[in-house]
Design brief:
Helices cover 25% and strands 30% of the residues. The protein is α+β, with helices and mostly antiparallel strands. It has two domains: 2-107, 2-Layer Sandwich (Alpha-Beta Plaits); 109-256. Strands 1, 2, 3, 4, 5, 8, 9, 10 and 11 form a nine-stranded mixed sheet that branches. Strands 6-7-12 form a three-stranded antiparallel sheet, with no helix packed on it.
Amino acid sequence: MLGDKFRFRFAKTGTLRLLSHHDLMRCLERMLRRADLPFKSTAGFHPGPRVVFALSLPLGVEGLDEVVEIEFTRPCDSQEVLAKLGEEAPVGLTFSKVSAIPMKATAIPRRVVYRIALPPERLHETGIRCSELIAQEKVWVDRLKPGPKRLNIRPYLRSLHIETSEPANIGSDFLILDFWVTQTGTARVDELLKLLDLTDLRDTGSVVERATVEIRDEVSNPDPADCPPAGPAETLPLDPAAIAALVQQEEEQAATVGWSVSPNSAVVE
């Protein structure tokens, strides 16, 4: 199939989950150049490939079915482009699908699904907490950015549940976090892990995976009863004490993991 703009599905796994979004873009530019693909560049003093990711991955999260769109200066064969990118991709970055799309089309995320493995002894308690949380009319979290506020994230929670395997195997039971994504916001994995008292899982080595990124124009005949919220979520102001506590918490986290998000951090050469 020929086209001058393609939408790719790809996975970013293994140690590449520690690669920042900024460095992933630099890596993709190097891949395009090495593959000698005729990518279209942006204008300005610092031109770069016209590449758009549907949704950036949080640092440390593996993406199993991510979306990126790339524009080219002339029509190219989709399978040839897919093969060339695959040849230049580093270990942990896998391009699986490609489709030609109109130049004016844009991948707008509608829904995302995260998962994290649960140890057997946490299944029952976590399942109860998920049921209790999803049954609440409002679920409040505190955020500093883009401005300090309390936010009701309940409209963004499509589903919270435990996915168990049959027969049961250690490491094959997952907490599933199914979120709506809107132009005005979404829920965050770290917020839900905190609400479910599971923040220690990541500290002990469990890896969060983003298993699904659903794109609006790829959903045909959506169910009107199962769709993202239409408007912005309800907010409340934060008191000064809560703001101070959040600032201190972010400073402590930055002191612990700040090395991994530097714009000069390691990138595939």
